[in-house]
Specification:
Helices cover 39% and strands 12% of the residues. The protein has 487 residues and is of the alpha/beta class. It has a domain of 305 residues: Alpha-Beta Complex (Amidase signature (AS) enzymes), CATH 3.90.1300. A hairpin with a 5-residue loop joins strand 10 and strand 11. The two termini are 16 Å apart. 54% of the residues are buried. The chain binds glutamine. The site of glutamine has 14 residues, from loops.
Length: 487
């Protein structure tokens, strides 16, 4: 029987002839079929994946060179363009739309011989924290079917959690990789803004969006980042300085980190006391292990969620203007309407409730009379956050925060209270506002039975250091030998 622990072990087994890429694809297709109730996949490309696996097996057996992700089976959040395949952003407005080109990240995965097994469910246009805002229905958390998987990349998280692919890609505008990783008990990395090209990623808020990675081990996440990071002629915001090899994970045994945590974050009334105490214990342990751990004052904490929701909805209202029923995607069936009414009707029928709410909010904060009161103010807060963060990283290497104030919500719990849902993003939106990389490291299990993680962040473009730290922590606090597969 095929089992997967890490890309490295899989590659070893392939080279020793102990398994084939085809065995691996069959294994995942069987598991996907057996876990349909989780609703993680919107599309499964089974025949294609098998065909690709057979051609990779033939090439390898003939002694041909192999790509860095040879035969690695990856699922894509349904906001990433995969040429000639459906692309919907889990929205009715893109029903029947097929992508005519590859996202750069997808192209890079294919170049290194990854097998793309399907498109994964998510919140519509990546807006949400529970995956309940999908035109394809909600996704269930495999650990407890009454709980949400988190969002917006809920399908990508559950696919890794439940062993329905080896790793997956998601997008993170305000936590959509780290928070579902936290709720599902796996690793979720959001790289620095500009580390991975956004070309071919359906835009939600362009100055925040970043493609992220879900996996079970730090080396797997690093290996995928190595492939998808770096320069791209189609995205002028991508950093050109990719010199590090992210897979270079071993740190000297004596490596000591200077770690900061925000006092206000851990005393916040919304934070589950058990999560707080567990993180404080973990910070104590790090201190005992010789790292410097200090609480820093961060009085801007209460401004970050409002600033995030003002700026991202403003950007979204502009980005989503292109979905007008004319150029592509869903169009109202009433063909007798005059143009403005036709736009209105197509958009009203095509977008879901949360997306409409955000377009309205974004249009409002950008309107002439309110622009300065909301949009300009939020930009000022963003600048203050960036400046404060730079000061912190002059003295510290790592910032630690919870990933989410609670473990996974019960399905339906927050759907009637969007403000409560937004406020739960308090610990993740910070990294997107300031552009730094963040990771949710799956370390703990709550007495309620659900997993939760610890969020670590470094300054911009220090992913290597972030991954090395995560590797160290995973090795010291969690065994790789028992990947907790959820059935
Ligand atoms: N939960 C956040 C939101 O609803 C994050 C979304 C994201 O990162 N795509 O905006």
């Amino acid at each position: 029987m095929f089992t997967f622990h890490s890309i490295q072990d899989y590659h070893k087994a392939l080279s020793e002839g102990l398994c084939s890429c085809e065995d691996a694809v069959r294994h995942y297709l069987d598991r996907i079929a057996a876990h349909k109730h989780l609703n993680a996949y919107i599309q499964v490309y089974g025949d294609e994946a098998l065909e690709k696996a057979r051609s990779l097996d033939a090439k390898r057996r003939a002694g041909g060179s192999t790509g860095a992700l040879h035969g690695v089976i990856i699922g894509l959040k349904d906001v990433l363009a995969y040429k000639d395949h459906p692309l919907t952003a889990a929205s009715r407005i893109l029903f029947n739309f097929k992508s005519i080109y590859h996202a750069t990240a997808v192209e890079k995965l294919l170049r290194e011989e990854a097998i793309l097994i399907g498109h994964l469910n998510c919140d519509e246009f990546a807006m949400g924290s529970t995956n309940e805002n999908s035109a394809y229905g909600k996704v269930l958390n495999a650990r407890d079917l009454t709980k949400v998987p988190g969002g917006s990349s809920g399908g990508s998280a559950v696919a890794v959690q439940a062993g329905l692919c080896m790793a997956s890609l998601g997008s993170d505008t305000g936590g959509s990789v780290r928070q579902p990783a936290d709720f599902c008990g796996i690793l979720g990395l959001k790289p620095t803004y500009g580390r991975v090209s956004r070309y071919g990623l359906i835009a939600y808020a362009s100055s925040f969006d970043q493609i992220g990675i879900f996996g079970n081990t730090v080396p797997d996440v690093a290996a995928i980042l190595d492939v998808i990071a770096g320069e791209d002629d189609f995205d002028s915001t991508v950093a050109t300085d990719k010199t590090a090899t992210f897979s270079d994970l071993d740190t000297p045994a004596a490596a000591k980190y200077r770690i900061a945590y925000f006092k206000e974050a851990l005393t916040h009334p919304g934070l589950d006391p058990e999560i707080r105490d567990t993180l404080l214990d973990c910070l104590d342990q790090l201190r005992n292990d010789g790292h410097t751990v200090e609480a820093v004052d961060f009085d801007l904490l209460d401004y970050i969620v409002p600033a995030y929701y003002v700026l991202t909805t403003a950007e979204a209202s502009s980005n989503l203007a292109r979905f007008d029923g004319v150029k592509y995607g869903y169009r109202t069936h009433d063909s007798q309407l005059e143009l403005t009414e036709f736009y209105k009707r197509s958009r009203s029928e095509g977008f879901g409730r949360e997306v409409k709410r955000r377009i309205l909010l974004g249009t409002f904060v950008l309107s002439a009379g309110y622009y300065d009161a909301y949009f300009t103010k939020a930009q000022q807060v963003r600048k203050m956050l960036v400046d404060r963060t730079e000061l912190i990283f002059k003295e510290f290497d790592i910032i630690i925060l919870p990933t989410s104030p609670t473990t996974a919500f019960t399905i339906g719990e927050k759907m009637d209270d969007p403000i409560a849902m937004y406020l739960a993003d308090i610990y993740t939106v910070y990294a997107n506002l300031v552009g730094i990389p963040g990771i949710s490291i799956p370390l703990f299990t709550h007495t309620n039975g659900m997993p939760f993680g610890m969020q670590a962040m470094t300054s911009r473009f220090k992913e290597l250091s972030l991954l090395q730290f995560s590797h160290l922590i995973m090795q010291q606090y969690k065994s790789y030998e028992n990947p907790t597969l959820c059935d």
